[in-house]
Amino acid sequence: MESIGYLGPKGTFTKLAVDSAFNGGEKFSFETIPECIDAVGNGQIDIGVVPLENAIEGTVQLTVDYLVHQVRLPIFAEIVVPIQQHLLVNSEFTGDMDDITEIHSHSHAIAQCHQFIHSFLPDAKLNFTTSTGSAAELVSHGNANMAAIGNKLAAQEYGLQLWKENIHDYPNNHTRFAVIAKDENLVRINHEVDAEKTSMLITLPSDYAGALYQVLAAFAWRKMNLSKIESRPMKTGLGNYFFIVDVNQPYDDVLFTGVKAELEALGCKVQVLGTYPVYEMNL
Ligand SMILES: O=C(O)C(=O)C[C@]1(C(=O)O)C=C[C@@H](O)C=C1
């Protein structure tokens, strides 16, 4: 049976994503994203599931940076799940909004609810945790004035009251999760494929006028549709960036080989981070 690691503890959105995508497998929780990626890298587990991007807050930079700079593992699937953030309080809490003095959650979850916090809990102290699940756990042992931001599973798992539902600031909230592994054959997801994607890492040769334009032209004239382009620091000095480009089609030996050759002729370094199916889950 394959082993599947995820950003835990129980009650995280990543666990929801894992449960929706994998029927079988032995599931292992990790406290941080790097620990989960390391465990796949060193063979402790077969598959890792880590958050990649949220519709409101954008890229989970820790995941991208760790996969690019520390442990390079291919992405073999993407799971997209709807995200609903709720305000969860201790079972003993009987007060009202003014009595909540601390909010605990993952930075991405807090960011998805900034407007709510600004309007209704402007004086609450914010505490960033490694996941929404660990925030819920903390609140379950804490005093009655603490609240966590997280999902319904966390409320159930830690015996918290679902005190205010759907506090995320924009309704169409989803998060993409990357499924990483060393062996593609172990990744068996029980769901129809909704799309196919290829993620590429492109490093420009040096800073010159029109460099990015030339890179994009290689995709444009081949009519290859991009769904994302993002720059991240190379961590080698100010102004040095690489680009992550998501192309809305699977890798093939004609178009992608052509793009790669054209970009390499311009002096770019081109690497494929993964070519994978996308599964959109309805929870
Ligand atoms: O903390 C969790 O529950 C997670 O699974 C992490 C995470 C994230 O990193 O974006 C996942 C989905 C939500 O967007 C909020 C938090």
UniProtKB/TrEMBL annotation:
**Keyword hit for Lyase:** yes
Recorded hits in Pfam families, A to Z, give:
PDT
Does the keyword Amino-acid biosynthesis feature in the UniProt annotation? yes
Q: Which PROSITE patterns match?
A: ACT, PREPHENATE_DEHYDR_2, PREPHENATE_DEHYDR_3
Q: What class of enzyme is it?
A: lyase
Q: Any idea which UniProt keywords this protein has? A: Amino-acid biosynthesis, Aromatic amino acid biosynthesis, Lyase, Phenylalanine biosynthesis
What InterPro entries does the record tag this protein with?
A: ACT-like_dom_sf, ACT_dom, Chor_mutase/pphenate_deHydtase, Preph_deHydtase, Preph_deHydtase_CS
Q: Which residues form the ACT domain?
A: 200-277
EC code: 4.2.1.51
Catalyses which reaction(s): prephenate + H(+) = 3-phenylpyruvate + CO2 + H2O
User: What pathway does this protein act in?
Assistant: Amino-acid biosynthesis; L-phenylalanine biosynthesis; phenylpyruvate from prephenate: step 1/1
Q: Where is the Prephenate dehydratase domain?
A: 3-182
Q: Which PANTHER family match?
A: PREPHENATE DEHYDRATASE P PROTEIN, PREPHENATE DEHYDRATASE-RELATED
UniProt-listed NCBIfam families: PRK11898.1 (NF008865)
Specify the protein name.
Prephenate dehydratase
- Native source organism of the sequence: Virgibacillus siamensis
Name of encoding gene: pheA
